[in-house]
Amino acid sequence: MGKRAPSPPPAPDYAGAATAQGTANKDAARVASQLNNPAVIGPGGKQSWQTFDQTGYDKAKTDWQTAGSQGTAPDPNAFYTSEQPGDRPLLIQSLSPGQQSIYDTNQDTQLKLAQLGSQGAEAVGGTVGTTLDLSGMPAAPGPPGQIRDDVINAMMSRVNTDYGRAMEQKKADLTSGGIPVGSEAWKAEMDRMDRGLNDARQQAIIAGTGAASQDFSQTQVARKDAIAEALLKRQSPLNEISALMSGSQINNQFAMPGVAPAPAPAPAPIFAATNAAGQYGIDVYNAQAQQRANMQQGLFGLGSAGILAAGMRR
User: Fold this and answer.
1) Would 209 be classed as within a structural domain?
2) DSSP per residue over 139-194, as a string?
3) pLDDT tens for residues 71-121?
4) CA-based nearest residue to 114, from 237, 249, 239, 236
5) What's the whole-model pTM score?
6) Is residue 174 part of a domain?
7) Structural domain contains residue 193
8) What is the Cα–Cα distance from 180 to 188, expressed in whole angstroms?
9) Which residue segment(s) compose the domain that 174 sits in?
10) Bridge partner residues of 51 (DSSP)
11) CA atoms lying within 13 Å on the CB side of residue 269
C-alpha cells in the first residue's frame, strides 16, 4: 500500500547547543579584548598581558588538599603566564630623533629631581613626626603688672622726695609770711601742693601702663617671629621635596593615539543554527508525511473507481 510513514526527526541537542554557544561567546569576547587592548612597546617601556591558568591552579590546589594540605598552598600568582605571540596585536611607539633627544633629556632631569627628593627625604627623616622644640624661644609675655608697678615706683620715687622738700619749704614760707596754720590761705596752698602730687601720680600710672603694653607687644612679636622662623626651617625641606617629586612624576607611556577600538566580533550562531536544523528536519518530515497522505488518497481513489466499473459491467 505504498511507502511506510516517515519517522519524526530526532530532537536537537539544545543543551549542548547552548553550552557551545556560551563557549563561542566567550571566545568572541576574548578576541575583542585582545584586539582593543594590544601589547605596547614605547619609549618608556613596554606593556604586556598575562593569562591565568585556572586549570593548572585547580589541579595544584586539589593535589595539595589530597596530600593533607601539607606544606605551602599553591600561590595563584605563580599561575599567571605571558600570552604567546599572536594572541593580541603589538603596538610599537617610536619617536623621531629630535623628539627622542627631548624625551631622553626630560627623563634624565626627572631622574635627578627624584634623586634629590630622596636625599632630602633622608635628611629630614629625623624631623618628621617629632614635636617642635620651643625651649629656646623667647618666653611668652607675662602679666603686665610688674612692669607697670616698676615704672610707677621709679617715677614716683623722685617725685615723693621732691614733694617732701617742697612741702617743708612751702610751710616755712607760709609761716614766715604770717599765714597761720589752718587758715583758709594755708589750706588752699596745701590743696594745691596735693593736686600737684596727684597729677604726678597720674602721669606715672599712664607711663607705667604704656610701658607694660609696649613690653607685652614686643615680647609677643619676638616670640611669634622666632616660632615662624623655626617652622620655616622645619617646613622648607618638606616643601622642596614636594616640589622635586611633583616634577619627577612618570607619565603614562602606553597611550594609544590614533587607534580606534575594533568592533566586537560576532560569535558563531551555534544555537540559532541548531534551531534552524531542527526546524528543517520538521519541515522535511511534514513534507514526507503530506506526500504519503496524498499517495494513499490517490490509491484509494483508484480502487474505488475500479470497483465501480466492475459493477457496471455486470
Assistant:
1) yes
2) PPP--THHHHHHHHHHHHHHHHHHHHHHHHHHHHHHHHTT--TTSHHHHHHHHHHH
3) 899 999 999 887 766 677 777 888 888 888 888 888 887 787 777 777 766
4) 249
5) 0.40
6) yes
7) yes
8) 12
9) 145-246
10) 81
11) 5
Distance CA 284, CA 134 (A): 101
The three cell numbers of residue 285 are 518530515
Burial (CB count within 10 angstroms: exposed 0-12, middle 13-18, buried 19+), residue 108: exposed
Considering its fold, how many domains does the chain have in total? 1
Which of 28, 38, 83 lies closest to 261, judged by CA? Answer: 38
3-state SS class at 41: strand
Mean pLDDT confidence for 38-43: 82
List the strands of the sheet with 39-42, edge to edge: 45-47, 39-42, 90-92
Contacts of 42 (CB under 8 A, 6+ apart): 92, 93, 253, 254
More confident: 30 or 252: 30
User: What are the DSSP calls for 205-265, one per residue?
Assistant: HHHHHHHHHHHHHHHHHHHHHHHHHHHHHHHHHHHHHHHHHHTTPPPP----TT-PPPPPP
The whole-angstrom separation of Cα 71 and Cα 265 is 45
Q: Which three cell numbers stand for residue 68?
A: 593533607
* Domain presence at residue 173: yes
